[in-house]
Structure formats: structure tokens, C-alpha cells
Amino acid sequence: MIEINPSSLNRAEMTTAIGLAIMQWQDATQAYDEAVGTKLGLNTAERHCLGLLYGGPQSAGAVAVVTGLTPAAVTALIDRLEARGLLTRTRSLEDRRKVVIEATDLTRDLSARYYGAIAQEGQKMMAGFSDAELAAILRFTTAALDLRREQLARLKAEAG
Description:
Distance between the termini: 42 Å
Mean pLDDT: 92
Order of helices and strands: HHEHHEEHH
Structural class: mainly alpha
Low-confidence stretches: none
Strand content: 5-15%
């Protein structure tokens, strides 16, 4: 673990240290996710689809948004994951034309196996922060995520 004494840093040094830590966090997260994907034989789009399902049942359209795939490619992705027992596909009760996909028990078991310890250790780590610190972390991460999403949308608009 990197130990930093914030009281020994000025604002510019803290800002630089935060930026560097975020880049390293992103790299470490991506490397871990790719290693899990390799172990499970999942490509990036398949991992993103399953990650989306962690939040509950989703439409194929939501999968297309998260993965950036065309409708035909999303159908093929869903077919592959369904054949492996990693998701189920059912017709929406509200609109029979729509398909709803859900994670299976196997997917939840694999998620717990590879990400459960991270979640548990993360909870322990966060217990060491005060409510005010957690509020600041939440405000920062939410703002940083909004910024990243805005920049991604801008980049995609320039390309399209």
C-alpha cells in the first residue's frame, strides 16, 4: 500500500498524487478484469455485459449502449453467454417484443469468486474513513465519473 502523508503535501502535490493514483487504479482494475476475462474465456464486451447485469435485468438495448456493439453483434453476444449458462433471455412481460436478460446463479457465483474478496476488503478499507471523508470521496468519484462520461461523449461525437 502506498502511504502518503497529505499534511506534508501542498495542494498542487496532492492534485498530482491523486491524478497518478487514479491512473494506477484504472490500470490495476483493467489488468485484473482482463485477467478474470482470460481465465473465464470472456472478451471485453462480454465482461461489460455481465457487469451491467450485476445491477439487475437489462434490455438488449442497454447492452448495446454499454458495449458499443450493433444490435446484431449484441444478439450474437447474448447467444454466446446464454449458451455458456451465464445469462438468461426472456420476453418482457410489459412488451413481448422486448427481450430481458438476466445474470444466472453461475454468473453470480463467478462474480463472488473473483470480485467478492475485493468488495469485502473494500468495505473494511472504507470503515477506516469518517462519514465526512466518505462523503468527499463520493462527491469526487461522482464528479470524476461525470467528467469522464462527458469527455467520452465529446470524443465519440468528434469521431462520428
